[in-house]
Specification:
The complex is a heterodimer of chains A (281) and B (345).
Chain A (H helix, E strand, L loop, with lengths): L2 E10 L2 E11 L4 E5 L6 H8 L7 E6 L2 E2 L5 H7 E4 L11 H7 L13 H13 L15 H14 L4 E5 L7 H12 L4 E5 L3 H7 L2 E6 L2 E6 L1 H4 L2 H8 L3 E5 L6 E5 L4 H6 L20
Parallel strand pairs in A: 3-8, 3-9, 6-7, 7-8
Antiparallel strand pairs in A: 1-2, 1-4, 4-5, 9-10, 11-12
Chain B lengths: L8 H21 L7 H13 L6 H34 L12 H15 L9 H21 E2 L2 E2 L1 H25 L2 H12 L11 H15 L2 H8 L2 H6 L4 H23 L5 H13 L3 H25 L8 H19 L9
The chains are: A alpha/beta (281), B mainly alpha (345).
Chain lengths: 281, 345
């Protein structure tokens, strides 16, 4: 087992946010944390990368206590790809990626040839050569996310923590970013918002509600109308993705039956509907 | 918008060093008795050789202008470095070394000395001691009040700093209100900042203290880059964020306290010069910090020179000059490079 959370509980400001969570992340796998806002996904991830201290439980990296490692040693093994953000003071893309080398450098340590090669490769890996001298704040959301992945690559860690990396991204970038990450061959623990997307990319998922795991396992066994209703309080249909066969969520309007029996009472005049090709019919 | 690849650091540093040399030479040369660079060099050489001459030039250069220029350079470097770091510490472009209450705390101490003769037995050291104690008190108060759990969160730090500053300022106002009118004049002059009291005996201790602090912060360049992304990315990069924030807060506060103790509250340098430097060399702190040291020193020496000559034989408070130069410079630069300040978001 590459990364393992055992009986993890986390308190923030005296309140228990995460209770007795156990998650196993086998080497090379992609494990997803699902759950509504405030269910404790981010808190679990932040405990893994040392923002929070666990109130109880342990985090094991290759069987050894992760939190007993020096911070810089842990950072050489586990990197974070955060949600996109803006910088107060803009760095160029290359400078951003070079920051990934931080855990390898001492005070006054200069960037050497190795660092520069690693950074170049990382930028290339995410297809960011054109962006190298751009300011990070000038990039689009998808481009920023690629740069943050390049930074994590430069960090040389074999574990990646993703905290809702596809938030605010267009559909094209959502898929692109997750494919990029899966292609890296590293072990991934990710908090994901979009259940259908999670089902396409995760080997295992854990569904959280109120800081506890309510279901865990293969996406098709975890993502069901019943569990989604229980955790999210939402009414959904779950179909099988025609290409991947993974569970795919279709939202339902509340009291859909009522509306079906009395068509569009709120829309007077000609009813406009969108066709499958996006044109108005 | 594609930024050009950066100019190499040694080139920028060499240019700034040349600028510093020019401004320092001017700072010593210009005054009611103008002196040539050659005359200045001779005086300095004589002193370094150990047999100073008893000339007017010697008295002017060695006793008056040189210590003043050196002090201005050290304080300029220190305020710039501290300002750059505080802006990262609180993740706010509007921050400066005096934001976190230090200068207003120091003002309380210095005002008490000037108006009520506290520590009178210590002679020339009384004001410095008063302001250092005031600065330490303010630092401790801000630290204790803004601590959330065990961490110093940026927003808490700013809010508590600003609120306590206001409180200390009202204490200073109260002291001035209760003090005698003649002394009030000297308090006001001190509050606006001046290097007029520079002298050799008082130079070494603050200069060494500030130099050590600058050295410490220069060593943090890479870690500051990580911290500039935010506490959480920094933590994931192996930075002990809590400890780093605490250390940066203490070191920058001490620097601001020492700077205020030797030269009063010289505003704007710690706010504006870091931005000017970032606009010149980008935001990588391994470039910003060293360039800021040299450029900040030049800026302050030039400011002090202008403060002496503009209304000669009177002397203008240097805070007036730094604001007059700094504000327009910064506005021009910001308008040319909007993205640097998050305008994209």
């Amino acid at each position: 087992m590459s990364l393992e959370l055992r009986g993890l509980s986390v308190d923030i400001a005296g309140r228990r946010i995460v209770t007795d969570v156990g998650i196993a992340v086998p080497r090379g796998s992609f494990v997803g944390l699902l759950g509504p806002n405030g269910s404790g996904k981010s808190t679990i991830l932040k405990t893994v990368y040392r923002v929070h201290r666990p109130a109880a439980g342990t985090i094991l990296l290759d069987g050894a206590d992760l939190l007993a490692l020096r911070p810089r040693d842990a950072a050489r093994r586990i990197a974070l790809v955060a949600q996109e953000f803006a910088l107060e003071f803009d760095f160029t893309v290359r400078e951003m990626v070079m920051i990934g080398r931080t855990p390898y450098k001492r005070a006054f340590g200069k960037d050497d040839e190795t660092d520069r090669t690693i950074v170049d490769h990382a930028i290339e890996r995410v297809g960011g050569q054109e962006l190298a001298h751009r300011g990070f704040n000038t990039l689009s959301g998808g481009e920023k996310q690629r740069v943050l992945i390049a930074q994590a690559i430069a960090q040389g860690a074999d574990h990646l923590i993703l905290d809702e990396p596809t938030n605010h991204l267009d559909i094209r970038y959502q898929v692109e970013i997750l494919e990029l990450v899966t292609g890296l061959g590293v072990t991934v623990l990710a908090a994901l918002h979009d259940l259908s997307l999670a089902a396409m990319f995760c080997d295992t998922v854990h569904l959280l509600d109120g800081g506890r795991i309510v279901a865990g396992g293969k996406p098709e066994s975890v993502i069901t109308p019943a569990t989604v209703r229980q955790a999210y309080g939402a009414d959904v249909l779950v179909i099988s993705h025609p290409e991947t066969g993974t569970p795919h969520l279709i939202p339902r309007r509340s009291a859909a039956g009522d509306r079906a029996s009395s068509p569009s009472p709120v829309l007077p005049g000609p009813v406009r509907r969108c066709g499958a090709d996006g044109t108005s019919q | 918008m594609t930024a050009a690849p950066r100019i190499r650091l040694p080139v920028v540093l060499a240019c700034c060093a040349a600028l510093l040399l020019v401004t320092m030479t001017l700072g010593v040369a210009v005054g009611s008795v103008p002196l040539s660079p050659a005359a200045i060099l001779r005086v300095i050489a004589d002193h370094l050789a150990g047999h100073p001459r008893n000339t007017v030039a010697d008295a002017i250069v060695w006793q008056i202008r040189l210590p003043r220029v050196l002090l201005a350079a050290v304080v300029g470097a220190a305020l710039t470095t501290a300002g750059t770091v505080v802006q990262v510490l609180v993740r706010n472009a509007l921050a400066d070394p005096f934001l976190l209450g230090v200068s207003s705390g120091a003002s309380v101490g210095a005002t008490a000395v000037l108006l009520f003769g506290v520590f009178a037995s210590l002679g020339i050291w009384a004001i410095s001691l008063g302001s250092v104690l005031g600065a330490l008190g303010a630092m401790a108060a801000v630290f204790l009040v803004s601590r959330k759990g065990r961490a110093l969160a940026p927003t808490q730090l700013i809010l508590c700093g600003v609120v306590l500053s206001a409180l200390f300022e009202s204490v200073t106002s109260f002291l001035i209100f209760r003090g005698n009118p003649q002394a009030t004049q000297s308090v006001l002059f001190w509050l606006l900042g001046s290097f007029g009291l520079a002298n050799w005996p008082q130079l070494p201790i603050p200069a060494i203290a500030l130099a050590v602090a600058i050295g410490y912060l220069l060593a943090q360049g890479r870690a500051l880059n990580a911290l500039a992304m935010g506490s959480e990315p920094a933590a994931s990069l192996g930075i002990d964020v809590r400890q780093m924030r605490r250390n940066l807060f203490i070191v920058t506060s001490l620097m601001a306290g020492v700077a205020v103790a030797v030269s009063g509250v010289i505003g704007f340098v710690g706010l504006v010069v870091p931005h000017i430097v970032r606009l010149m060399v980008g935001s990588d702190h391994r470039r910003v910090l060293p360039v800021g040291v040299v450029f900040g020193a030049s800026f302050m020496v030039l400011g002090d020179l202008l403060a002496r000559v503009i209304v000669a034989p009177q002397e203008m408070p240097i805070g007036v000059i730094t604001a007059f130069i700094g504000a327009p410079t910064l506005i021009i630069l910001i308008r040319r490079r909007p993205y640097l300040y998050g305008a994209a978001g």
